[in-house]
Amino acid sequence: MANTALDLLLGGAALALMVLFSLNAGTRKRIQAEDRLKSSLKEIEDLKAALDEHAIVAITDPRGRITYVNDKFCAISKYSRDELLGQDHRIINSAHHPKAFIRDLWTTIGSGRVWHGEIKNRAKDGTFYWVDTTLVPFLDERGKPRQYVAIRADITARKAEEEARRATEARYRALFEYAPDGILIADSRSQYVDANASMCRMLGFTRGELIGMHASNIVVPEEIRHIEPALSAINAKSDYHREWRFRRKDGSVFTGEVIATAMPDGNLMGMVRDITERKRIEAAAAHLASIVESSDDAIVGKDLSGVVTSWNAGAEKIFGYSAEEMRGRPVARLIPAERQHEETEILACIRRGERVINFDTVRLRKDGGTIDVSVTVSAIRDSSGAIVGASKVARDITQRKRAEEEIRRLNVELEQRVVERTAQLEAANKELEAFSYSVSHDLRAPLRAMDGFSQAVLEDFGPEMPDEGRSQLRVIRESAQRMGELIDDLLSFSRLGRQPLSKRTVNTGQLVRAALAELNAEREGRQVEIRIGELPPCECDPALLKQVWTNLLSNALKYTGKRENALVEVGWAEFQGEQAYFVRDNGAGFDMRYAGKLFGVFQRLHRAEEYEGTGVGLAIVQRVVHRHGGRVWAEAAPDRGATFYFTLKGETEL
Amino acid sequence: MNESHAVELLLVEDNPQDLALSLRALKKANFANQIHVARDGAEALEFIFCEGPHAARKIADGPKVILLDLKLPKVDGLEVLKRIKGDPRTKMIPVVVLTSSKEQSDVIESYQLGVNSYIVKPVNFERFTGAVRDLGLYWLLLNQAPKVDD
């Protein structure tokens, strides 16, 4: 046991040999040597004890069978010494190491070289432990391994730490690689040394391209001057937060939110989140919010129990309550007591997913007054489509209501006025009828008397009267008769304005021939050529239109009375862009300077001695034509004939 | 006026000038003796229906024709016409409206009430005389009046 122990100790053995050699020098020297040997052995024993305290020691024979184990070996392997001796090391094999590893170990020590390495073993209870192992082969005289000494140190704890560290590293690496945000690592010179996949994707660069780059390579030019201050800030404090405008490899730009920090190893880490979409949504939301806020209409959000969730400036203006006063309060406070059921009904509609559109109602203001509003209510849905509330848009329609009321009032007034005016017109018409009746009846009676009694005087006393007396009585009679004609014409003219039109399609040619037939007497004994051209039918009151043709033709015949070869033409032609009927004669004509008087009642352009007439005929023509929405005009020159045109367009009644 | 003879013609006229002229015209046509004149509608009705001062007369005795002005004091011409044409005893008597009125409404209403003729008095005296003479000739001499039983 002692020998074996001595053999164990490499250093101790060498020392012992040296001691033995020196004893051969002499007895004294031998005694001295013995003392020294004793002391060496003691030292060796001490060393061994110390070694046992520190290391796990085992010795095997050349075939690997265990010949010696110390207490530490037993403790770590959890086997007793008896269980170990005679076994080989397979008893603690963990099967962790590959075969090549084991083969290399045996090749090394089999060839007499020391092997050093870390081995994972399995204890009796199945747990594993790691040992830092040194295997020293001891050779016999022939140079073959005589035994192997294994000295081991327990490194299980260190190994566990290493594994834990590796796991942590792998975890952080995965975190780095798979983080949705971009992550950049820069060295102390602020050159990038690493970038994760998200960062590469965001910028369009490969990791290889990014490594070695600087912040100035990935931001827009305007941002470059902010880099140095940012680096200082990052180095100065632990957290840094700012939005940056980045430029991708393809030149496009995005906004990234950057969080950066200096790491213990002196590197800098920056995390980048692309917030372009968030910015867009924020801008859209801000835009919508500003629309809501700037609306003159009240826009109110409420939940399904009718509690106000949002309240815009329009609502404040219309109802008088501020947003602070209304948010969280029931919207019912805006509803007059007698209309409370409306809110229940509206909310029921909303729950069914229906809208309430332009519901005109009355609401209460903060000051206690009421206000007319038109309300539109729609459901508010969450992202899953569930109805969570309602948005109400209320428009102040007080003005509109007032305007409507005003319109109603004006309409009533107008109707009243129309009724009154109609009554006045009817009365005026009645008066006019009474007047013309009276003219017709009463004015003609005295004329008849004047004429009749003048005639009676002529008949009864004519023979005894001087010629002058008879002639003067004849003047009286002529005047009375002429006044009768004037009255008749005036009455028929006045009747034209009152008589209702009864329009139908009329064959104009037939109408003209009928009018001419009535004028046969005026043509008797005269040489008059009458030419009737193509005349389209017209939409008119035939009796009145016949009067027009009769008057125009009668004029034409009258004013051609002094012509040897009178010519009257009737036709239809385009004149100054208008299609017009016309009656042309080659008679006396007139001076166009007086054309303005032509159609006035009792206006005449010729003296009565030259041409008879009352001056009503053309006034009648004009009145009939106007009542048919047409126009009448004339062209003439003194002694060169006249042409009268008229149109019947339009449906206007004058 | 002349109640012993059957009256041939009743002239209803309020205007004295028109009356004088009408009578002059009728006299020229030799109808003077068979004329009775009424100066308003009420007088005309009393004569026709033999009332008041004419109670002794018989409705069946005529007149053979009535010349009726429309614009009359008391009872107007259209009312007189309506009464004549509305009574079976008198409705067969020819009535000629002789008036100054050319108003269509008068003409239409007269014919609706059953007038036999509607004549507008002309201003011209020759024509007036002619019209009256023609009327007298037609209605009194040429027209064969149906016999009316009382």
Helix content of chain B: 25-40%
- In the CATH hierarchy, what is the architecture of the largest domain in chain A at level 2? 2-Layer Sandwich
The number of strands of chain A is 22
Structural class, judged by helices and strands of chain A?
Answer: alpha+beta
Q: How large a portion of the residues of chain A is in β-strands, by DSSP E?
A: 15-25%
Look up the CATH topology of the largest domain in chain A.
Answer: Beta-Lactamase
Rounded to an integer, what's the Rg of chain B over CA atoms? 14 Å
Shape of chain A: rod-shaped
Strand content of chain B: 5-15%
Written description of the protein model:
The complex is a heterodimer of chains A (654) and B (150). Chain A has five domains: 2-152, PAS domain (Beta-Lactamase), CATH 3.30.450; 179-279, PAS domain (Beta-Lactamase, 2-Layer Sandwich), CATH 3.30.450; 295-396, PAS domain (Beta-Lactamase); 402-480; 499-646, 2-Layer Sandwich (Heat Shock Protein 90), CATH 3.30.565. Chain A is of the alpha+beta class. In chain A, a hairpin with a 5-residue loop joins strand 4 and strand 5. Chain A is rod-shaped. In chain A, the strands form five sheets. A five-stranded antiparallel beta sheet of chain A has the order 2-1-5-4-3, sandwiched between helices. Chain A has a five-stranded antiparallel beta sheet with strand order 7-6-10-9-8. In chain A, helix 2 runs antiparallel to helix 3 (27-54), helix 16 (467-498) runs parallel beside helix 20 and helix 17 packs across helix 19 (542-559). Residues 650-654 of chain A have low confidence and may be disordered. Chain A is built from 20 helices and 22 strands. Chain B has a single domain, classed as Response regulator (Rossmann fold), CATH 3.40.50.2300. Helices cover 39% and strands 14% of the residues of chain B. Chain B has helices spanning 16-28, 41-48, 77-86, 104-112, 125-142, and strands spanning 9-12, 35-38, 65-68, 95-99, 117-120. In chain B, helix 1 (16-28) packs across helix 5 and helix 2 (41-48) runs parallel beside helix 3 (77-86). The longest helix of chain B is centred in the C-terminal third of the chain and has 18 residues, at 125-142. At the A-B interface, helix 15 and helix 16 of A face helix 1 and helix 5 of B.
